[in-house]
Amino acid sequence: MYINLHLILLHPMRIEDEIKQPIFRDDFQKAHINLLFTASWLQLRQAVAFKPYGLTLPQFNILRILRGQHPLPATVALLIDRMLDKTSNASRIVDRLEEKKLVTRTVCPANRRAVDIRITVAGLALLERIEQDGVLNASDLTQLNDAEVQQLNGLLDKIRSGDELPGR
Amino acid sequence: MYINLHLILLHPMRIEDEIKQPIFRDDFQKAHINLLFTASWLQLRQAVAFKPYGLTLPQFNILRILRGQHPLPATVALLIDRMLDKTSNASRIVDRLEEKKLVTRTVCPANRRAVDIRITVAGLALLERIEQDGVLNASDLTQLNDAEVQQLNGLLDKIRSGDELPGR
DNA sequence: TGACATTAAATGTATGTACATAAATTTGCA
DNA sequence: TGCAAATTTATGTACATACATTTAATGTCA
After folding, report:
1. pLDDT per residue as tens digits for the range B117-143
2. Which of A36, A106, A131, B126 falls between 20 and 30 A from B98, CA-CA?
């Protein structure tokens, strides 16, 4: 039930082998934990890969959204709309990118409530360097072949299909 | 590439249908995002389910570890060892459980560096109530059948197999 | 014994998430 | 026109993660 993440990160093995509580109730429970655990594993690998560049994952993602817009600006509302998690706080992530001179913030002249956010030359250069170093490829699912990846996508889509959030 | 979590939470659909950037580079990239995304989806469902009980997920997990030890105490070191993420801060999560009178902290008489942490009667009662209300089952992978769940476990195990963390 | 290393927990700092609220601007309509 | 509602961003609080450092107690060994 409870797993030591860093141990597995360094010495990958089947999830049973790291479980302290003896067994899972059933394969469903195992899959549930396995899913959360594998996602953490991927995220930690990514975070470690980005660390040498002084970026966190959310900061990297926002930079990429901004590059997608470049040379047009993005507003905070656009960033929120495109981020993985809608409720996270784009304003403060942009604060940190601004401190590092990777983005600029200017009041939108057409609508003074809004803020135009633009990636800087330094921001573009940093993204390019990260991509040229192959940081993204390092965290790919290289252990799976094409058929397996398609299977996985089907299963994950199915998990989220056909039901509503209970009690809301 | 970037997905609106809360929309999907309320209206599950295939992951392509929520993507703002037009397409994935390939099925591998899609599976990567799909995995992170589905795990967030499960976690958010769980967090929402625990909210009425005034617990966060890490707090709930630590309570369960403590019940597993009960009536013996656990040390902070034992909690860290059994938690999903070894580097998270068990001390401060125990702080919050202690404020809610769900656990007690006493200096270990045999080793005054260590702290004995025990679940209280109120803590045990809360766990029982949560489980009787079926909160755990609500977040199961009910959309999959037995064969699919086994397939999923195999694929997830395979993702983490056979390589080391690059550059560490 | 006493100096030094080791261990266990707590604390500090930076970041991010989740959620509520505030502040400024714009919109819309009586 | 003028005032309420809506929009856009920023801020505040609580909690958690990640990582470094501190504090206290114990262990080791010359």
Report:
1. 999 999 999 999 999 998 877 667 888
2. A36
Q: Give the pTM.
A: 0.82
Chain A residues in contact with B11 by the CB 8 A cut-off are: 164
Contact call for residues A138 and A49 (beta carbons, < 8 A): yes
Tell which residue, B58, B15, B2, has the closest CA to residue A159: B15
Contact predicate A75/A108, CB 8 Å: yes
**Side chain identity at residue B10, one-letter code:** L
Instruction: Read off the amino acid at residue B97.
Output: L
CA A130 from chain centre, in angstroms, equals 15
Helices (H), chain A: 5-10, 27-50, 57-69, 76-82, 90-99, 121-132, 146-159
pLDDT (tens digit per residue) in A30-57:
888 888 888 888 888 888 899 999 999 9
**Comparing C-alpha atoms, which of B50, B137, B67 is closest to residue B102?**
B67
Q: Tell me which residues have their CB below 7 A from strand C.
A: A 56, 58-59, 84-85, 87-89, 92-93, 96, 111-113; B 5, 40, 43-44, 47-48, 51, 75-77, 89-92, 94-95, 105, 108, 111, 113-115
Pairing mode, strands A115-119 and B103-107: unpaired
Higher-pLDDT residue of B140 and A16 is: B140
CA A1-B125-B129 angle, to 5 degrees, is: 75
